[in-house]
Write a sequence for this structure.
């Protein structure tokens, strides 16, 4: 009896103890639940998820230029995901996804027992929904508190969102290795394919990645990746997602994964960097993660042409100045030598009388014919030796040529003169060798390219294209300096009385200096400011006549756009529009346009660019600058076979800068060549020799299939038959006479007869009827 009483008491004690523990646990659980609930993030934020998506930059014709951002990601809608890829993920990660309420309690119990029995966590029991909570709403810390929050949030998410929405979030967010986030990025990174183009084996390989991207990565560990892929395929077979035959075929497939990069469709790295800097200025670090799509003004075809034209011009310059035998550091592995621009390292294998053979870094063997070597000047057997490390490049005809990395640099810019849109831009030979953008950042003397500013001023001050200026030696005292300045023409010759038309056509320095001195520096400075120059760019000395200030190639293109578009100052721009990741346009460029027919509304309509020179002055300058191509320092451009080309060469002191600024009414472009350290380019390396070929090569493509546009005289311009020796009217019978354009108020009134000039009202001989 006593024994039963004791047993009863013990049972009662255990019952009370159990009830106490249960009640305590219930009370503790209640308070813990309330505490954790208060700490949970708001699951409604998943309605508007902002994925970290790189900044993408495109040309105007929608070609990819570049991407910036650490995470590679392309979000997709669940409707775009192939069903078999969904099945692969379900089989690999959560086969009861469509049945459970967000938490797989059986799996959690299984994982708990595994931990209790072995002390090791082998099965996590996490569902896809729980992984979504972890990836979007919680930190990555591994604690039991976080696990409880994960479970609570998963249950709430399942109540708030449909299964397919949860799956879509998961498939777009999950890390897949090699900076790829989400399935679309993984398909691109590993296979270079869209989701729709993946095979069953590739579906399974991708679905096997989330478990451990670093271990089951087909690039890092192909054997482990194939094992994981085959496991996924087996699970798909067990769940009846695939047939036995499909399983066997897929498991026999070798890994086809190869690390892919998002390859730009056109090369415009200097422009891409300009866009990146602008976007960072506007949005900070958010620029690289918000999925902005930038559509630039770049024309893909013209950009490719500009790149090639610059490359060819620099190689041509380099070859004119001889071969520099490579001095390669022998301690550097040949295979580690960089490709620079279009120059590729190669090792000479053999040398014969008519060609050399060489091996590239990819082990392919090439032949270099003698005609592609002889520019270097020495017989092939002396120039090249077996074992030499050289550089080669592939020419447009697909033959290989001996080459070297050019030491000179260059830049090229093309604009649409009607609105300032940048059509093509390159700032150097190789962006990766030197990111300095010479097209926009350089401060170079424009040389004779500045002279049209002086001649524009002269025409506005009453000079005419027929005005004569004495091309004779001039001595200028410079205050504070011991020696006088004795400027010269490029060829060191003097030509006596010279018309303004002839002076600009042949780029006579003395004429520019005398004009500047006669008009006064302030008048020319005022004109330059109208054209967009700033005060600090313009020296207030007579050296201004020779372009001794500074400008970038982009700015020079802007200057010449005024002559091309009828007299308006347009502002260069390169971003056409900015789109959000959802395709919403958040910025649209609204450039001011040159509108010759809109003069009367110019001040009323802010969409019109300001007119800075009159239609009459613009016409006269176009006439003069066309003569530079047809008869002057840029006659090399006549190879294009057009009459509507205009422009001006520019060569600075000691040939430190070589320019050509040229245009038609549809395209304005500036080419520049020089050394970054301002070293001289060498004797005879003028704008017409070093820079003009770059411009010609570009324009051969840019102007293809475009019609010539004749130069039409505006009201207020007349033609008169004059004697070029005097600038005065002459008889139609004068064989040396020529037609010249004048503003009505500046037509010469004097008439020359018999070699002497008289007033037109005093002449004994009347002018011919077609004199004007």
């Amino acid at each position: 009896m006593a024994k039963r009483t004791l047993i009863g008491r013990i049972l009662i004690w255990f019952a009370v103890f159990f009830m106490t523990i249960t009640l305590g646990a219930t009370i503790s659980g209640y308070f813990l639940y309330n505490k954790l609930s208060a700490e949970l993030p708001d699951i409604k934020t998943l309605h508007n998820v902002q994925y970290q998506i790189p900044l993408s930059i495109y040309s105007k014709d929608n070609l990819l230029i570049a991407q910036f951002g650490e995470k590679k990601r392309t979000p997709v809608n669940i409707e775009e995901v192939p069903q078999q890829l969904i099945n692969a993920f379900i089989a690999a990660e959560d086969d009861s996804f469509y049945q459970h309420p967000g938490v797989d309690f059986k799996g959690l119990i299984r994982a708990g027992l595994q931990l209790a029995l072995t002390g090791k966590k082998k099965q996590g029991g996490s569902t896809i929904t729980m992984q979504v909570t972890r990836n979007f709403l919680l930190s990555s810390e591994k604690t039991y508190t976080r696990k409880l929050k994960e479970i609570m949030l998963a249950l709430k998410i399942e109540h708030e969102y449909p299964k397919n929405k949860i799956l879509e979030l998961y498939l777009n967010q999950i890390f897949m290795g090699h900076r790829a986030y989400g399935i679309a990025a993984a398909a691109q990174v590993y296979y270079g394919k869209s989701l729709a183009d993946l095979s069953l084996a590739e579906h399974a390989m991708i679905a096997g990645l989330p478990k451990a991207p670093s271990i089951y990565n087909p690039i890092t560990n192909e054997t482990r990746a194939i094992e994981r892929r085959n496991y996924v395929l087996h699970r798909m077979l067990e769940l009846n997602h695939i047939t036995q035959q499909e399983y066997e075929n897929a498991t026999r497939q070798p890994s086809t994964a190869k690390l892919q990069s998002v390859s730009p469709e056109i090369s415009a790295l200097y422009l891409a960097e300009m866009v990146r800097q602008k976007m960072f200025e506007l949005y900070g670090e958010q620029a690289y993660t918000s999925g902005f799509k930038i559509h630039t003004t770049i024309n893909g075809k013209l950009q490719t042409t500009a790149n090639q034209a610059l490359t060819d011009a620099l190689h041509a310059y380099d070859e004119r100045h001889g071969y520099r035998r490579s001095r390669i550091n022998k301690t550097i592995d040949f295979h580690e030598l960089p490709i620079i621009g279009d120059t590729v390292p190669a090792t000479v294998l053999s040398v014969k009388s008519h060609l050399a053979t060489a091996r590239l870094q990819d082990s392919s063997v090439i032949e270099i014919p003698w005609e592609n070597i002889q520019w270097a000047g020495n017989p092939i057997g002396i120039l090249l030796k077996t074992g030499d490390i050289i550089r080669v490049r592939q020419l447009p005809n697909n033959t290989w040529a001996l080459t070297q990395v050019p030491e000179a640099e260059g830049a090229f810019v093309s604009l649409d003169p009607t609105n300032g849109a940048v059509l093509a831009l390159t700032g150097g030979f190789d962006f990766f060798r030197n990111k300095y953008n010479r097209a926009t950042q350089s401060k170079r003397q424009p040389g004779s390219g500045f002279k049209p500013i002086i001649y524009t001023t002269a025409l506005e001050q009453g000079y005419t294209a027929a005005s004569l200026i004495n091309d004779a030696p001039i001595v200028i005292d410079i205050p504070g300096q011991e020696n006088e300045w004795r400027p010269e023409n490029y060829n060191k010759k003097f030509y006596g009385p010279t018309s303004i038309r002839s002076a600009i056509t042949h780029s006579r320095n003395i004429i520019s200096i005398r004009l500047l001195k006669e008009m006064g520096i302030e008048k020319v400075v005022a004109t330059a400011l109208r054209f967009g120059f700033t005060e600090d760019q313009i020296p207030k000395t007579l050296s201004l006549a020779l372009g001794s200030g500074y400008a970038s190639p982009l700015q020079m293109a802007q200057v010449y756009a005024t002559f091309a578009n009828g007299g308006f100052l347009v502002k260069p721009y390169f971003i056409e529009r900015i789109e959000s990741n959802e395709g919403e346009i958040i910025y649209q460029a609204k450039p001011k346009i040159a509108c010759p027919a809109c003069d009367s509304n110019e001040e009323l309509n802010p969409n019109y660019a300001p007119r800075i020179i009159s239609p009459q002055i613009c016409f006269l300058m176009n006439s003069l600058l066309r003569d530079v191509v047809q008869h002057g320092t840029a006659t090399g451009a006549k190879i294009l076979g057009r009459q509507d080309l205009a422009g001006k060469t520019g060569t600075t002191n000691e040939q430190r800068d070589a320019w050509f600024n040229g245009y038609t009414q549809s395209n304005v472009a500036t080419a520049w060549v020089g050394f970054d350290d301002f070293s001289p380019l060498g004797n005879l390396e003028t704008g017409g020799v070093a820079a003009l070929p770059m411009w010609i090569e570009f324009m051969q493509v840019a102007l293809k299939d475009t019609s010539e546009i004749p130069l039409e005289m505006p009201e207020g311009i007349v033609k008169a038959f004059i004697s070029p020796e005097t600038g005065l009217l002459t008889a139609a019978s004068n064989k040396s006479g020529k037609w010249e354009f004048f503003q009505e108020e500046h037509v010469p009134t004097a008439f020359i007869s018999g070699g002497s000039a008289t007033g037109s009202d005093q002449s004994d001989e009347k002018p011919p009827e077609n004199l004007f």
User: Anything to note?
Assistant: Residues 2-39 form the longest helix (38 residues).
